[in-house]
Amino acid sequence: MGDSKFLNRETAATAAAEELSQENRGDGIVVRDLQRQLANAFVLFGNYKHYHWQVFGPLFRDLHELFDQLASEVLATIDPLAERVRMIGPDPVADPIEWTNIASVSVATPHTSLRYMIEEADQNALIVIREMRMAACSAEEHRDPGTVDLFARFVQVHEKHEWWLRDMLRRGDGLVT
Ligand SMILES: [Fe+2]
């Protein structure tokens, strides 16, 4: 009797999981959005570390530390994005070699000026912000509040980064021009 109760519970759990997953199944837009932002987070983490190592000049300390902070904050989004995909079902990214193909942000250009680094970082942040806002709306349409919450929180990380990067690009004192 204990066995049959266990089986009933297992059957019920499977049915519930299927019901919850039907709106955001593995080949659906919610999973594709999560996978794209996971790939973007990996590329941005690499970019911010690259800038962290490449900065030079009178603003070295500030920019060196700033880019390390941006890298850490993006890194903290990677595991929740990947595990959200896993909760829904599929592999977060079936083939890691595909990450740069899935990502919509560009990999950092080597050997550039400080201003170009910040402009490149700002452009990439804007891409992620635009996509995460759309992805949150899409997850809402697919009745997935967990994914809506994830994108709603993480878009704020990139919005803050974009604000900082944008304000550093304001011309005035000539330090990063
Ligand atoms: Fe470092």
How would you sum up this structure, described in words?
By secondary structure, the protein is mainly alpha-helical. It has one domain (24-168): Ferritin, core subunit, four-helix bundle (Ferritin, Up-down Bundle). The protein is built from six helices and no strands. The protein has helices at 2-21, 29-54, 60-88, 99-102, 114-141, 145-168. Helix 2 packs antiparallel against helix 5 (114-141) and helix 5 packs antiparallel against helix 6 (145-168). The longest helix has 29 residues, at 60-88. It is elongated, with a radius of gyration of 20 Å. The N and C termini lie far apart (76 Å). The mean pLDDT is 88. Bound molecules: fe (ii) ion. The site of fe (ii) ion has 2 residues, from loops.
Summarize this, please?
The chain has 177 residues and is an all-alpha fold.
